[in-house]
Write a sequence for this structure.
């Protein structure tokens, strides 16, 4: 039995690691030549840190250059507001780790490569499904040497919100609406600058600043479709509000020479009603595109991967019907749909009730207490929602032996099995 996964983002890479670790033959396809793409989410929340811990990878992850945020703050024209403090969150990790996503993906795929069943194909772009007898039996892809195909008992679309395979399976997401897009750009950072990520809100403007050591990664939020209008007003139309909101950066904004130095990221919020076909499953953004609000998209993608491995690894490593029947795949959707719905509902609320009015200048400085983290019940709820999410998953699959770096098989520390719904 085997599995092929299209898309080496957080969902696909983590699922490939978990399945390979469980002894399943798994091939992961990534269309790019490396993971070195900028402007991807950087936030690893406590829920994902716990998964890394359960996999014995937390130490290596925390050895990567990273910044820790123990609290989330917003700076308004009238001063800072502490929105939540993650301190005291159960589970041992009470912070968000900001790590460039390519480092995270390199770590996950290099760990997966230590298991004999794992294969990674870079510059391999999936473009179609192999269908036989009403079921998906694998996929077709292009690589530098031409067109290829891989057959598998389970084909997974983890190819993100523009998923090609989802479309080839005839699955169309239901759009929930996202009234914003995001412009991403870099500005040099100096040692005397603030050293925490923060959200800056001023009437008509919203910017998120992420400290990446030598530079700031800035996300400037614009109304949906507002890019062309902004570009027609010249680069000053972007520099001016940023300089006003973040005066410490004013002298360095010449580093954004033109809109060629700025990437536009279209925000989408949607989800599939049905995540599967016989032999085929969508996970991560391919099943439910997440808005950047709360920075939880990576974490939801990882949680999907953990649930999928927990529910399907058993069937994939023992003789079982090939392709995997929908009765098995339905369990994944049943498990992950509720957290998806709740998280997207909260993202919609923030997008429509806070960000959109703020961009439309209809919202003055929010009339909030300066320290919401001091409201105990509110802080417990928000820190849990942002840090652990709804229905956090635990790695429940028994690992096989892995190859050590010296090519000698070594046992992997076995965790206690977690109680989990059985596959029918
Ligand atoms: C502006 C913006 C900012 C965001 N910021 C954050 C944040 O700070 N923190 C956070 O947690 N989330 C953030 N998100 C959401 C987050 O990026 C996604 O929810 C998350 O990356 C989903 O992971 P994924 O693995 O499902 O998909 P993706 O991360 O999209 O990965 C899909 C992978 O598949 C590859 N691929 C695509 N098509 C093919 C193909 N045909 N064949 C082979 N490979 C293919 C792609 O190259 C990519 O590597 C943000 C989203 C937006 C729009």
């Amino acid at each position: 039995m085997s599995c092929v996964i299209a898309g080496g983002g957080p969902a696909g890479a983590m699922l490939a690691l978990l399945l390979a670790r469980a002894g399943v033959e798994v091939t992961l396809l990534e269309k790019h030549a490396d993971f070195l793409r900028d402007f991807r989410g950087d936030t690893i929340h406590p829920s994902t840190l716990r998964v890394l811990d359960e996999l014995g990878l937390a130490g290596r992850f925390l050895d990567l250059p990273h910044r820790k945020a123990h609290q989330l703050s917003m700076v308004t024209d009238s001063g800072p507001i502490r929105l939540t403090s993650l301190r005291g969150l159960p589970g041992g990790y009470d912070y968000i780790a900001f790590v460039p996503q390519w480092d995270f993906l390199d770590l996950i795929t290099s760990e997966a490569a230590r298991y004999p069943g794992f294969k990674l194909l870079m510059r391999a772009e999936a473009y179609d499904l192999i269908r036989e007898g009403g079921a998906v039996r694998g996929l077709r892809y292009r690589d530098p040497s031409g067109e290829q195909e891989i057959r598998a008992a389970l084909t997974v679309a983890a190819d993100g919100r523009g998923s090609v395979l989802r479309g080839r399976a005839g699955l169309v997401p239901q759009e929930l609406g996202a009234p914003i897009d995001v412009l991403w750009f870099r500005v040099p950072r100096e040692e005397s600058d603030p050293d925490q990520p923060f959200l800056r809100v001023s009437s008509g403007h919203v910017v998120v600043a992420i400290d990446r050591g030598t530079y700031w990664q800035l996300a400037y939020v614009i109304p949906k479709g507002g890019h062309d209008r902004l570009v027609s007003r010249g680069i000053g139309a972007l520099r001016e509000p940023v300089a006003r909101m973040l005066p410490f950066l004013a002298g360095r904004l010449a580093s954004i020479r033109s809109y060629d130095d700025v990437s536009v990221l279209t925000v989408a919020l949607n989800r599939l009603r049905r995540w599967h076909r016989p032999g085929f499953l969508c996970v991560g953004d391919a099943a439910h595109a997440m808005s950047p609000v709360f920075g939880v998209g990576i974490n939801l993608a990882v949680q999907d991967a953990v649930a999928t491995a927990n529910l399907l690894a058993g069937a994939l490593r023992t003789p079982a019907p090939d392709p995997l029947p929908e009765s098995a795949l339905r369990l994944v959707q049943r498990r992950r749909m509720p957290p998806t719905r709740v998280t997207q509902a909260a993202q919609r609320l923030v997008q429509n009730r806070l960000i959109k009015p703020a961009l439309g200048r209809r919202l003055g400085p929010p009339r909030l207490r300066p320290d919401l983290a001091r409201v105990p019940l509110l802080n417990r709820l928000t820190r849990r929602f942002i840090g652990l999410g709804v229905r956090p998953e635990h790695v429940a699959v028994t690992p096989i032996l892995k190859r050590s770096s010296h090519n000698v098989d070594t046992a992997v520390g076995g965790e206690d099995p977690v109680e989990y719904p059985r596959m029918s």
Summary: Residues 6-12, 29-32, 40-43, 125-126, 158-160, 164, 182, 265, 267, 284-286, 290, 292, 295-299, 301 surround flavin-adenine dinucleotide (CB under 6 Å). The longest helix spans residues 326-359. The longest strand covers residues 135-143.
